[in-house]
Amino acid sequence: MPPNFNDNEQRVHDSSSVEHRADAEKAIGRNPHPDFKQVETSRPDWQSNASWNFTKTKDPNWKLGAGANDGGNSTNLAPFSYTQVINHDPPLFTIGFAGGLANPKDTLANLIATKECTINIISEHFLEAANATSINAPHGVSEWALSGLTPAKCTDVQCSRVKEAIFSVEGKLVSTQEFESRATPGKKTSVLAIVEGTRFWAREDALNEEKNILDPAVLRPMSRLGGIMYGRTVEGCELPRPDYQEKIDGGEAKGLIREKVPGQ
Asked: Fewer CB within 10 Å, N or C, the chain?
């Protein structure tokens, strides 16, 4: 299909693919609730007065080697700000590294050398230990020992996953792309790695009965917000994707249908 087709030309050229995409959302079943509005009505109202605030970590007195902060037991190990899932089939993830290939950080050097890695989602109960893996230790010093986290065996890759992690991914390197500085031309300043997930590990109590959704109340994920800041996820809301034909038939879209104009 030529890349400069507009929406109408696309529909004329391949109407079946457009209809397939419209039907695919229903087939995916992204909304797990038979009656979403009934479920939504039972939930608390949006807290408009909620404000951002800083708190202490769960264990401000955490020391190197202490491991998880909940009393549980818990290669190269490091927390990453630039990590994202970009596709589901195949399951693909991106990882961003500061610096070029000529002088790679240990994690990037290991990924390039072995072509494999694990991705472990940080949860509240081992935040301090995960952050400790960012220590600027010399090459060859184990971040596992310094953090107190426990290496667990994988199936498809040789490197270890974090036993304390509620959700982990075994991955194989697909490709890397090096980027050059705009401020300092000629200087290589970053590398993007694409990794394919080959096996997924999830703690049983975090999974629903169908084993296709993780419970955020159990996962309690922590996010990297830049600098030394982390975010704690303790609240969420759900919004089903609207169905075009249902909105047309129900009259909600009346008077709102317009043809796209150039630039939109």
From this structure: C
Contact 7, 18 (CB under 8 A): no
Q: What is the CA radius of gyration of the chain?
A: 23
Nearest to 252 by CA among 261, 243, 260: 243
Closest listed residue to residue 174, CA positions, set 196, 197, 156, 191:
196
In 3D space, the residue among 155, 162, 172 whose CA is nearest the CA of residue 112 turns out to be: 172
pTM, full prediction: 0.82
**CA–CA dist 259, 21 (Å, integer):** 20
Residue 25 is predicted with a pLDDT of 63
Q: Are 232 and 124 in contact (CB under 8 A)?
A: yes
Tens-place pLDDT, residues 198-243: 999 999 999 999 999 999 999 999 999 988 899 999 999 999 999 9
Q: Is the dihedral of CA 13, 91, 131, 179 positive or negative?
A: negative
Residue 169 β-bridge partners: 119, 200
